[in-house]
Amino acid sequence: MKIVVQKFGGTSVDGAERIRNVARWIIERKHEGYSVCAVVSAPGDMTDRLINMAYEISKNPPPREMDMLLSTGERISIALLCMALHEMGEEAVSFTGSQAGIITDTSHTKARILEIKADRVLDALKKGKIAVVAGFQGVSVDKDVTTLGRGGSDTTAVALAVRLGAEYCEIFTDVEGVYTADPRVVPGAKKLDLVSYEEMLEMAATGAKVLNARSVEFGRVYKMPILVRSSFTRASGTWVREVPENMERPVITAVTYDRGESKITIREVPDKPGVAARIFSYLANNNINIDMIIQNISDEGTTDISFTVSKEDTDIAYRLSENIARELGAGAVEVDRNIAKVSLIGAGMRTHPGVAAKMFAALAEKGINIEMISTSPIKISVVIREDRVEEAVRAVHDAFLLKDDQVYEEREI
Fold first, then answer.
1. Cα-based torsion angle of the residue sequence 355, 216, 48, 173 in order, rounded to the nearest 10 degrees
2. How far is residue 63's CA from residue 334's CA, in Å, rounded to a whole number?
């Protein structure tokens, strides 16, 4: 049995005609000889509207009840899509996350998948039916409804593809693939035909919204090919998969940005062994993810430590930071919500010197100040003022000639 998993985002199922369009995509794959499992998101901006409704009722809604609320959007999509498929003469059956056997940990609103018991989904596929699964949700080991966090439907789709032994996972969205930069910010951005798992993982983690980072990690670990394409056009899309080491690689693949972070600074932290470990262990134990960290040079036995967190975690991270600062005898805790992160990603920078210098020079030429720097073998990220982010993205994109058809290692930069 040849299986393909298709995932359709919220814009793809926003309204009756778009749902019918999704049904046609599914039927097309079935007619190509595949057994199809479709994963769908909530229609349009329904999740955002549900969140807004919750905060109209409560300033601090309980996470368990938020999961119960937010899981309803995908249930609407799966039922309507199955109705559309039945109208077109195909047998289809819908599954919530729990019915599909998606078992998660107990972290409400950002649960992690522990196991997928996909017996019911496989049984439906073996009977020739189309399986339609609610993305973004599962059931915890404590039998509570859970959700997987922003972009969680991507994670559902790739994890299901792995569990079902699919040939590949097809992610349908409202863009035609993965670009060298956000085409809304850089009109000349180029669509990429192929991106490696490691490059896509860095892009997703640094602000590219086209794929969720955890879904890419699933793909990388289990070698599941992912095809990103638009549900509204016939464009070929972008493959995210393993790339042979001997294949010619670009120096720079893409420029990404992220406005979704804040910077927290703890002043006058005692500069002695173990203090940083206490701070970040305390935050980690409270489920706060840290992105970038910088520690200043010690001055009279104390230092300042700054780090970035997601905007949605800012308030709780601030309160936790105040708690640990008091325990350590540190100074004030400050929050800066007006930052943005710009990142340069490319597997070729491993063997090509001068990339960081060129990026920093491009920003300096525009008078854009760098506040924090973080690097990995294939990524350079900087924190700047939020109001300069689009200008920064365009400057870096232009500096590396990413509008050209090819930017390979042999090109001098």
1. 90
2. 26
Give the tens place of pLDDT for each residue, 372-392.
Answer: 999 888 899 999 999 999 999
- CA distances 173 to 22, 40, 52, 123, 237, Å, are 11, 11, 24, 28, 10
Task: Give residue for tokens 């010619």.
Answer: 248
Class of domain 3-174: alpha beta
- Interacting residues of 400 by C-beta distance below 8 A, sequence separation 6+: 251, 252, 255, 344, 358, 359, 407, 413
pLDDT of residue 248: 59
Output DSSP code: residue 118: -
Q: What is the DSSP letter of 251?
A: S
Where is pLDDT greater, at 102 or 297? 102
Predicted structure pTM score: 0.84
Helix, strand, coil percent values for the chain (each to nearest 5): 40, 25, 35
Q: What's the token pair of residue 87?
A: 């109208």
Exposure letters 355-385 (e unless 16+ CB within 10 A, then b): beeebbebbeeeebeeebebeeebbbbbbbe
Contact by Cβ (8 Å): 183, 208: no
The H-or-E segment that residue 203 falls in is helix 197-205
Amino acid at 4: V
Helix (H) or strand (E) holding 286: none
Q: CA-to-CA distance for 308 and 370, rounded, in angstroms? A: 14
Alpha carbon distance 391, 315 (integer Å): 29
Tokens of 197: 């798992």
Q: Average pLDDT for residues 262-289, to the nearest whole number? A: 94
The length of the chain in residues reads: 413
User: What is the pLDDT averaged over residues 61-81?
Assistant: 96
Distances (CA, A) of 57 to 65, 66, 110, 149, 165: 12, 12, 21, 21, 43
Q: Determine the Cα–Cα distance for residues 375 and 354; give it in Å rounded to an integer.
A: 14
Cα–chain-centroid distance for residue 394?
22
pLDDT reading at 351 higher than 80: no
Q: How confident is the model at residue 246 (pLDDT cuts 50, 70, 90)?
A: low
